[in-house]
Write a structure and sequence with these properties.
The protein is an alpha+beta fold. Helix content is 40%, strand content 19%. It has two domains: 236 residues, Metallo-beta-lactamase, Chain A, CATH 3.60.15; 59 residues. Bound molecules: fe (ii) ion.
Length: 302
């Protein structure tokens, strides 16, 4: 089944924030964890969700980020200002990036144009992104006992070099950001492939996630897959990945290997003319550039 990313999914999983930027909350009897918190303008919405869920938002122990993109961790500095005992966890590279002024300025610049859109959520709250400590450095094989339920950490590079997936074995729930791809459009929409840092790693990471046989996948945005549809989505995403590489190769061939030209034509044809992709054009083009550049590079090597 495919359901909107909101509300509760069984005894242990709840969703904070909103559909566009879900914060997946794992409720153990002793510890509570939220997976992803972005963008910064969403900060007050997560606090409101935690208040509703626990009576006191300070009952959240951990916030873990799936990767270093601003729409998955932009609200962590705000949450850490508000919730003083909250510990942040991610791949060590994320901890390094979140101390760099230039990275934080870019994140702020990316969310700034959305300020008006988020007026009802952020109001006049100070949601600025500042350097922040990630106290918990996460790696493949780590396991957190939350009380009655646990969280396993799996390295799933390919979307970014610092992508991690979090698996809750007791309920078969998987949270991986865009490491498992993005579902475009509405019901039964196509899968948008997202190998921004490495095609080979991305495929290997999909195989790794398929082997976990999840019964629930909390997507990066909008959707939750449950039951057989969870693993079925991963299989579809796996099938789509080499097809997307071939599509990029066709555009590169037509542009005689010119990356910029291939990106221009591909965005015009695949995005503007087909009109089936729902993500913002800027984000699509940025991601496309990374993928076309990467395919051009690996094809030169082989
Ligand atoms: Fe991402």
């Amino acid at each position: 089944m495919k359901a909107a990313a909101e509300g509760d999914f069984g005894e242990f999983i709840a969703i904070g924030g909103n559909l566009f930027y879900p914060g997946y909350i794992v409720k153990g009897s002793r510890r509570r964890l939220m997976i992803d918190a972005g963008i910064n303008l969403m900060g007050p919405a997560y606090i409101a969700s935690l208040q509703k869920l626990f009576g006191d938002p300070n009952r959240l122990d951990y916030v873990f980020a799936t990767h270093s993109h601003y729409d998955h961790l932009g609200a962590i500095p705000y949450l850490k200002r508000k919730l003083t005992r909250l510990k942040a966890g991610a791949h060590p590279r994320v901890g390094e990036l979140m101390k760099k002024r230039s990275v934080l300025e870019l994140m702020s610049a990316l969310s700034a144009p959305q300020r008006e859109l988020f007026r009802t959520i952020a109001g006049d709250e100070d949601v600025h992104i500042e350097p922040v400590d990630f106290e918990v450095s996460l790696k493949q094989g780590d396991r957190f006992d939350l009380g009655g339920v646990s969280c396993e950490v799996h390295g799933v590079p390919g979307h970014t070099r610092d992508s991690l997936a979090f698996f809750i074995p007791e309920v078969g729930a998987l949270f991986a950001g865009e490491a498992c791809g993005v579902l475009e459009g509405d019901k039964d929409g196509r899968v948008q492939v997202e190998f921004l840092s490495s095609y080979e790693d991305y495929l290997a990471s999909l195989d790794k996630m398929i082997a976990l046989r999840p019964r629930l996948i909390g997507m990066a945005h909008l959707w939750v897959f449950t039951g057989d549809d969870a693993t079925e989505f991963l299989l579809r995403s796996r099938d789509e990945t080499p097809r997307y590489r071939e599509l990029i190769e066709r555009y590169l061939d037509a542009a005689n290997g010119d990356v910029d030209q291939a990106v221009l034509t591909m965005a015009k044809t695949e995005y503007d003319e087909k009109g089936t992709i729902t993500q913002p054009r800027d984000a699509y083009v940025e991601n496309l550039k990374a993928q076309v550049r990467h395919v051009a590079l690996i094809n030169r090597k082989t």
